[in-house]
Amino acid sequence: MDEKEDFVVIDPSIPEEGPSAPPPGWFDCVTGYEDSKGGENPDENYHPPPPYALPDSNQNAFVPNVRLPTVSEDVAREALLQFVEKKWSYSSKPAKHLVFKDLRPLTVYRYRLETYTESRSSAWESEPYSGQYVDGPQNGMSPPPWEVQVEYPQKYTDVILKVRVPHSAVIKGCYRCQCAGSVRCSRCHSRGKVRCLHCHGHGRRGAGKNRRMCTLCAGRGHKRCTQCHGRGIKVCPTCQGQRNLLHFIQLTVTWKNQVMAFIPDKLPEFPLKNFEKVSGDNFFEDENLLVYPIVGFPDQEICEMSKKGIEGHISKFSSISRILQQRQTIELVPLTHAFYTYHGKDYDYFVYGKENQIYIPKYPSACTIL
User: Which residues have CB under 8 Å from 91's CB, separation 6+?
Assistant: First the structure.
C-alpha cells in the first residue's frame, strides 16, 4: 500500500501503562491484617476466635418412634398415569388397566446434618480518589478481623458479604499511570490506529481480477483504535484519570451451610440418587450450637452416621471457620414398591417422596394392544 503512515504525536510525559496490580511493598502494614495483599481474590481465612466447649460425649439425642406411611391403589395409579403422560414412548393403557398384586411400603430414613459456619478473609482493594471521605488511621486502629461488626443473615443461608475494614483507608498516587491520569495505549502502541484484520493491512482483498478495496478500512489497511479513539493515549483504567487511589482493606465474610445427607442403602434395585429431589416427613429435629450424636434409633446406621458426621464437621470446620449453629434432622421418606400384572405378565414400579414421584425399572411395551 502506497499511502504514507501518519503517526500520532504523544506527549513524552505520558507514561507507558503500568501493571494492573500494585507492586510488592506498596501497602502499609495494618495491625491484624499483615497478610492482606492486593487483588480480587481474598487470602486464606483467618483463624476463628478461641473454640467453644465440645459437647459432652456422655450425652446423646433420643429419637421418638414413627409410623410408616402408606399409599393407596388410587394414589399409586394416578402417580403412574401422570408419569407416563410425560413420556412420549409410553402408552397410558397399561397404567389405566393394570391389576395391583401388592403395595409394599418400605422404611426409608434420611439423616441430615447442617453446620452453619462463618469464615473471614481480607484483601487490599482500591477505587479512584475524587475527594470522598477517607476513614484512615487518624480515626483510630482498625479492629481485628473477627471484631468487625456485620449484620448477620438468616441462619442456614449461604451469604457472602464484603465490607470495608474501619480506619484502613489510605490515599496513594496511582501506580499504573504514575499519577499522570493517562497512559499510552497498549493496544495500538500509541499509534492511534491498528491494522485492519479483514484485509491484513493490505487495503485490498481477493486476488487477480477479483481484487477489491477493503470496505471495512476504506483501503487504508488500518482502522482507528477503539480503545483510545485514535488519540494514542487513554484515561488510566485504574484511577479513571483522578491520578490518586483510595486504598482500603476489604473484609470478605462468608456464611455457608455445610450439609451432610445420608440414606442407608438397603434396597439395591432403587437408586438412592432419586431421593435427592424429593421431600419426606421431618419427624425429628435437634438444634444447638453443637448437637449430640443420636442414640437408641431403630436404624443403627443412622446412629453411626450421626456420630461420625458430627465429629467430622467439628474437626473439618472449627479450625478454618466459626461454627454458629448445628442442626440434625431425620425424615421418613415415603417409598412404596408396587407390584402389578398386565396381560398376564408381572411388573413393578416405585412411588417415592411426598411428591409421589415414579421410578420404573421396566414398563409394559407401548405396542401392547388391549
Answer: 84, 364, 365, 366, 367, 368
Strands 212-213 and 233-235: unpaired
pLDDT digits (tens, 9 = 90+) for 189-231: 888 899 998 888 888 888 877 888 998 888 888 898 988 988 8
Phi, psi of 133 (to 5 degrees): -60, 140
> Alpha-carbon distance 19 to 196, whole Å?
27
pTM: 0.77
DSSP string covering 291-345, please?
PPPEES-S-HHHHHHHHHHHHHHHHHHTTTSEEEEEEEEEEE--EEEEEEEETTE
Q: Which three cell numbers stand for residue 350?
A: 416405585
Q: Which residues of 116-143 are buried (b: 16+ CB within 10 A; e: fewer)?
A: bbbbbbbbbbbebbeeeeebbeeeeebb
* Contact assessment for residue 231 and residue 224, using Cβ atoms and an 8 Å cutoff: no
Which amino acid is it at 283? F
- Nearest by Cα to 309 from 325, 288, 292: 292
Three-class DSSP category at 79: helix
